[in-house]
Protein: GNAT family N-acetyltransferase
Amino acid sequence: MTAGAPGLGTCRSWPLLTDRLLLRPATTADTAATWAFRRLPEVTEWIGWAADEASDYAERFARPERLAQVLVVVRRADERVVGDLMLAVRDGWGQAEVRQQARGCEVELGWVLDPAAQGQGLATEAVQAALGVAFADLGARRVTASCFADNTASWRLMERVGMRREGVGRADSLHRTRGWVDGCAYALLAEEWAVS
Structure:
């Protein structure tokens, strides 16, 4: 997060309830529940960082700067953690004379959903709620998300929630086993979200 930017824990009253989900800031108590699905091969195939050992995962998950930008997704029906969302406040690009006005105006959004909970519309529900947090609570003017182009489920989710594909980078993303592959970039502006 940008220095001075609010952490998710202080930006609103929690929890955030949707029809089927509860979203709340992550705590170290969520380490085991998130590790259970983040260690699965079908998940590690696409995520930006994957630990080989539970202890390595726990150390990174517990870092204050990480916890400040992660929400856990809890299925209300059984109170089970079924995913996590990252909302990272970033600076927009700006020329030197106006750079201060671009501080903390963008949010990078990411997500992981337990494969056992996929195919039920839960990721769409969670990401729509996260967009509300980004725009209404964090005051973002723009939300971005990116993925490997071959991660079809991820970019289709971006499109389902109204994000616009802004580009495909040719061999711009280094995958841990596939080498240099294409990546997709998506975004949504606050004014676009407000009318959706």
Q: What stands out?
A: The radius of gyration is 16 Å. Residues 8-194 form a domain with the Aminopeptidase fold (CATH 3.40.630.30).
